[in-house]
Amino acid sequence: MIRKLQVKFVIINMAMITVMLCVIFGLVYNFTRNNLEAESIRMMQTIAAEPFRLGRPNDPSSDLRLPYFTLQLGLRGEIISTGGGYYDLSDKAFLRDLIEESVGSARETGVVEGHNLRFCRVSTPRGTVLVFADMSSETTTLKNLIKTSAMIGVFSFLVFLAISVFLARWAVKPVAEAWLRQKQFVADASHELKTPLTVIMTNAELLQGDEYSPVERKNFSRGILTMSQQMKLLVEHMLELARSDAEQARPSVLPVDLSRLVMDSVLSFEGVFVENGLTLESAVEPGVTVQGNGQALLQVVDILLDNARKYSAPGGETTVCLRTVGSGKCRLAVSNPGAEIPRAELKKIFQRFYRMDKARSRDGSFGLGLSIAEGIVTQHKGRIWAESREGRNTFTVELKAQIRS
Fold this sequence. Notes:
The protein is an alpha+beta fold. It is built from seven helices and 13 strands. It is elongated, with a radius of gyration of 43 Å.
């Protein structure tokens, strides 16, 4: 699909460029031809008005000068005089053919076919003046223009083709990445759902047997319930991701007291940390307000705290810090002691279904929490990143903030 999209992009782009080049070169050719024709006619009209005027080498006139000759005809059409030294005017038959074509034309200017001459006919009280100008230089100029335009057109086409191929790859790259992420998401989701579905089906089949005791049948039912709850949690996480993706273009603009929101989340997690033998400390700067969705931002804090609880070293102390930095920004940092995260993993952990510890998949960790948090932070025009050093792992969220005095 991506390949077809790239080819379609290149074809459409090159079609537009080809039409544009044809129009440009066509206009240049027509303007040049019309200009040469107008200059030639202007020269012949000037000569017809003064057929016996001789030019000078240093004549400042800017008029076009072409090889020409004149024929002065009497009232009965006879040749009275000829002028011009570029052509042999002794061939009366040749001159008679030129006179018949030019005098018989309904137009005062035109082209004598077969002789590569342009004529201009001017009537005077004493007869008719015919001026003939050579078109060889004009024809050669137009032919050279066509050749030059063709070479420039081919070169431009190849250059634009290379640029179009590059732009097609560049423009389609986000689509290709999204397509690959979608395929990976479907594959990972299918893999995550496969195991609980297998357990549910196996326990359901065992429940149909008569050889098992009530206690065993109860265990089978408990297994079905546990796997169903796990599947429900996974589906809710995937729906949350889909909702986050759909709301990327609709950021909320409601003021949210982030300081109070963080403290509420810390208070709700204190009991959970105590039950797990962990310590939770907080340092929250009061009066920090952001624009956004309070429920979504609370979910970000909950995800970071839950992540710290799951991956904290036994008996470790998790710290939550909210403070303002610089002008109009705030940072929320959740830090816990634990196994060091390799530098190569620091960005991967925000990918969907990515888990450093594969064994976490059966304790309710699907590798979606941080991905959901990243989507919410991105929706609020902020950024989130992870750091790991000196035995502590820190997740930091940076948002635009308003400080209340």
